[in-house]
Specification:
globular, single chain, alpha+beta, eight-stranded antiparallel β-sheet, 34% helix, Chemotaxis protein chec, 158 residues
């Protein structure tokens, strides 16, 4: 499992360093429940198909999404406006695209366009019930946190 998760950690750190100019600290990955109700304000979801199927989800609070958008756009935002929603979607898109390259020796993957969910108390529906969802918590800007959740199942030979 570590060989599939480590590329996500490495890519996440590189993307945030390159685009946001900030270092991330990865917490200890853990298994999440498929039906868990989130307490995040926004999640961006990328589906995976091909020789593996699953999804990559980045989830964060509104304040962090706004901070990231301020840095990316060079303008000040006060809420989850359209630009902030686009920024979170673009970040997960870049992460999934880079991880896809790293995993190509194991799987040929196709990634979807990002889907954004925002609000409170929502549940992310994963592509299938048997997926083990691995959640990687990250800390940025000293005390802001976000999660990158990943569920991948090989379908080679299916």
């Amino acid at each position: 499992m570590e060989k599939y998760i480590q590329p996500f950690i490495d890519v996440c750190k590189n993307v945030f360093k390159e685009f946001i100019g900030s270092d991330l600290t990865a917490g200890r990955p853990y298994f999440a429940d498929a039906g868990a109700i989130t307490d995040w304000d926004i999640s961006a979801i990328i589906g995976l198909t091909g020789e593996a199927r699953g999804a990559v989800v980045i989830s964060m609070k509104e304040g962090l999404a706004v901070k990231i958008t301020d840095i990316l756009s060079g303008t000040r935002h006060t809420a989850l406006d359209d630009e902030a929603v686009d920024a979170v979607g673009e970040i997960v898109n870049i992460i999934a695209g880079n991880v896809k390259k790293n995993l190509e020796e194991s799987f040929r993957l196709i990634i979807s366009l990002p889907t954004i969910v925002q609000g409170t108390g929502y549940e992310v529906k994963w592509p299938h019930d048997l997926a083990r969802i691995i959640c990687i918590p990250f800390t940025i800007f000293e005390n802001d946190v976000f999660n990158l959740s990943v569920a991948i199942e090989s379908v080679k030979g299916a």
